[in-house]
Fold this protein.
Amino acid sequence: MVNRNLIRQLEDDDLAQQLALLVPPDQGEELLLEALELEQQEYIQGRIVDGRIVEINDEWALMDVGFKSEGTVNLDEWGPDEAPPKVGDIVKVLIEEMEDDLGAADDPYGMISLSKRKAEKIIQWEAMMESVAEGQVVTGLVIRKIKGGLLCDIGVNVFLPGSQVDIRRPGDIGDFIGRVIQAEVLKIDDTRRNIVISRRSLIERQREEDRTYLMKELEVGQIRMGIVKNIADFGAFVDLGGIDGLLHITDMAWERIGHPSEMVAIDQEIEVKVLHIDREKQKIALGLKQKDRNPWDNVATKYPVNSVHPGEVVNVMSYGAFVKLEPGIEGLVHISEMSWTKRVNHPSELVNIGDKIEVKILNVDTEGQQLSLGMKQTQANPWDDVLARYPEGTDVVGKVRNLTNYGAFIELEEGIDGLLHVSDMSWTRKISHPSERLEKGQQISCRVLSVDESRRRIALGLKQLDNDPWDSDIPDKYQPGQLVKGKVTKITNFGVFVGLEDGLEGLLHISELADHKVENPEEMVNVGDEIEVKVLRVDTDERKIGLSRKRVDWDEDRERAAAVEEGGGSASAATDSELKGGLGGGEGPLFPTGN
């Protein structure tokens, strides 16, 4: 079958004329046509031609494109918004592939492969190339999100990389889907029919123009509208229309805030005041709180010293608590100003954030914008009437709160302590440490010895609950020259202490241990030994008793003779100064001379 249409197409074709010269005349017209068709297949494949629909079924439309074989186009290539195809319609299609063997096993009809959709894209691309160039601004609709960015329709589908969507990459570029945007053409790849656009470069170009204009008209003190573009821990960056300014967290509000997000949000439009301009570095400092009156301007009048006000605890530190009296006005309650009586280790023992409390104004520093507040000053000071409640001579009951080397602190009531000194624990016994008589937490009775309200001190006594045995009992019971028995309680380098009864000791000086000279008292006695001694002297003023072991067997004549040898006078007179030097404290010899 001779394809007359093809002959008409090739009548003026140079290719036909060239092939005619190569084909012998006797082989006829049909051989020439076959040769022409083979060459023309390669020449026509990939071209766009007009096709006429000759038949339509459920899946495809059959088209006559002027060759001996028809071609097919799938019906899916007609979009839902297009009119459905019908027989006789002329449609531009792309010739994708031509079959040269009719009746092949895989295609018995030898159909030509056509594409309506690809033809439309090529036509659109070619039309676009006539009107678009690199660097040109185009307008398009964001269609969908693809790998690495967005697909936009500007007449043909183009690629907008994610990094080129905005100056700062949005959290989700998918939010741009459905938006009409303007962008700059960055690159055109004609071979791959690909265009890359940038919205960012267009914005940057516009911002540079806006920045130049804005810096000329911007002045300190102006009130400007801006859009919050970014939020950090230290503040927020606000776009003033071409240049960003920093709104520091300390300039957001007169009151304390924990984070800038408490005051502003990204993309929020706010009104700010220009605080400072560095034109050389193009840096701008902005303020939000400066639009309102500074609450510290009249704080001294509104919160005079000694006035009491309600407040809210807004922060708790190790050294105290910050209390808000009104937005922008806060003061510090130092830990020392929290309670008259409680021993506060940390302010959280008394207050927590959010607590509503009353405070007293202790000091106002308007220039430094600081208030010193007190909590305890809103309550009565228990020390103001402590003398009336604990007069001198009163017997009281308290709990041992703490022990020190010099005494014990006795808690009489919460916050009111008295000191029981070691010297006031016993009339007769030498107390080296209060733990010898007391233990922490023990309930004891004491007598108030003195009260110093100004220094907030109360002196207590334990031994004062009983009569002083040195007034009559001890002098009556222990006379010079008397023989007594006692137990060794302590040995020192200058002598031995002997317990005569519970809490009463006498000193046996090293010179009174034996008739011979003693270098080390431990050679003569041991702690715990029961020994017999003679009373040499009882000193009620110094509360000391002097003892002698070597004189136990001496009679009066020998005592008298020893007194004469030692300097004259009686034995009691000879030992008077010696007793004052050694008893009770264990400091220095009892008898500095003699053996």
Remarks:
- The chain has a mean pLDDT of 81.
- The radius of gyration is 56 Å.
